[in-house]
Design brief:
The protein is built from twelve helices and 15 strands. The protein folds into three domains: 65 residues, Arc Repressor Mutant, subunit A (Orthogonal Bundle), CATH 1.10.10.10; 127 residues, Nucleotidyltransferase, domain 5; 158 residues, Nucleotidyltransferase, domain 5 (2-Layer Sandwich). The radius of gyration is 22 Å and the shape is globular. The chain is of the alpha/beta class and 376 residues long. Bound molecules: zinc ion (ZN). Zinc ion binds next to loops.
């Protein structure tokens, strides 16, 4: 066995376990294509390292040992930095439930303020859980900008000020090792592994909140592309002659389907509503609010039809604040997909609302921290 074969086969086994949750060694052989001998060696090493646990099960009438991830064995921190707030989750790593803290930040805040808030909230959660900060294994942070994962370089014109500097500053989020990814990617990762896309091979998620973000997950792993911008679904072009987007292009999906867009469309007829008020009024039957949500669904359908034609995913998950609109938004989306993706296959892609709510990106950050801790 070559020197590089051990970590590569170890990574393959860990990937299969992350995707499936629990597998027998025979199932790991089938999932990875590795030989039974290699799987046995890798699983033995993972047991010795405390990375996986095994339990006796009966599969198709035969006794077998089922293998699952044991967790990294220490505290992890997941952070979601968004346009208007920071959310921090602490997983104590000892069987206790995770805890959560949120701080609302002013519009247009700089990245440094978000990092400071995350550091302070992390310290508060650790103190409340009586955990020594020195025991934290790892943290991961979702940011509202594309991240080239290989180099941890922040890309994208017109993104929030200062993220490149903060990501490159050691200790900005605390004294522990930190990994970064785009917050839309982490939301997709969480819905794919833990939520609405669980057990499905190819999951596309789009999140409709103040901005529009997205992510693509295949076999439990994020698709990042060459520069980290794969899955930036908010910047798909709906109308090349449309209004200018924060990214500098015209007529991006985000311009039509973000919460600012729907609030703006209703301003003349309804005054300045919050997103929650729009959703409540729509649920009560207000025709203007229902119409605007229906239009968002149709715009989303225009953009997602192309994505579904390219990827032919198992499921399209719609998350974010606007997903509470449910079928008022999802049915028009389904109609447009049915009109425009007939060429791909006989069946139109399944469309579902996300189930993890506003905590999805922070849950995804915890998953990223866990992956990174287990890979060491
Ligand atoms: Zn754009």
């Amino acid at each position: 066995m070559s020197a590089s074969a051990v970590p590569r086969s170890r990574t393959a086994v860990l990937t299969a376990l992350r995707h499936a949750g629990e597998l027998t060694q025979v199932e790991i052989v089938a999932a990875t294509g590795l030989t039974a001998g290699t799987v046995s060696t890798v699983v033995g090493g993972l047991i010795d390292d405390g990375v996986v646990r095994v339990r006796d099960v009966v599969r198709t009438g035969r006794r077998a040992r089922a293998v699952s991830l044991a967790g990294p064995g220490g505290p992890l921190i997941g952070v979601h930095c968004y346009l208007d707030q920071v959310r921090v989750l602490l997983d104590p790593g000892d069987g206790r439930a995770w805890s959560e803290a949120i701080r609302v930040l002013p519009d247009g805040h700089r990245a440094e303020l978000a990092a400071t808030a995350a550091r302070e909230l992390s310290a508060d959660l650790l103190a409340a859980a009586d955990i020594d900060p020195g025991r934290v294994l790892r943290a991961a942070v979702g940011i509202p900008a594309p991240v080239e994962v290989r180099t941890a370089r922040v890309g994208g014109a017109g993104v929030r000020d200062g993220w490149g500097t903060v990501v490159a500053t050691p200790g900005a989020f605390g004294p522990w090792p930190v990994d970064f990814d785009n917050e839309g990617n982490l939301s997709a990762l969480a819905e794919a592994r833990l939520g609405a896309g669980r057990g499905r091979a190819t999951v596309v998620q789009v999140s409709l909140s103040q901005g529009v973000s997205g992510g693509i997950v295949h076999d439990g792993e994020l698709v990042h592309g060459r520069t980290g911008t794969a899955g930036e679904l908010g910047h798909l072009t709906i109308d090349p002659h449309g209004p200018v987007c924060s990214c500098g292009n015209r007529g991006c999906l985000q311009v039509y389907a973000g919460s600012q867009a729907i609030i703006g469309l209703l301003a003349a007829s309804h005054g300045r509503l919050s997103v929650a008020e729009v959703l409540d009024l729509a649920a009560q039957g207000d025709p203007g609010c229902r119409r605007v949500l229906s239009d968002v669904g149709r715009h989303l359908g225009t953009a997602m039809a192309s994505v579904c034609t390219v990827l032919d995913p198992d499921v399209l998950v719609v998350g974010g604040a606007l997903s509470r609109a449910g079928n008022l938004l999802l049915d028009p989306l389904r109609e447009v997909l049915a009109e425009r993706t007939a060429v791909t296959s006989g069946a139109v892609v399944e469309v579902v609302a996300g189930v993890l709510g506003a905590a999805a990106p922070a849950r995804g950050a915890l998953l990223l921290a866990q992956d990174a801790a287990l890979a060491r």
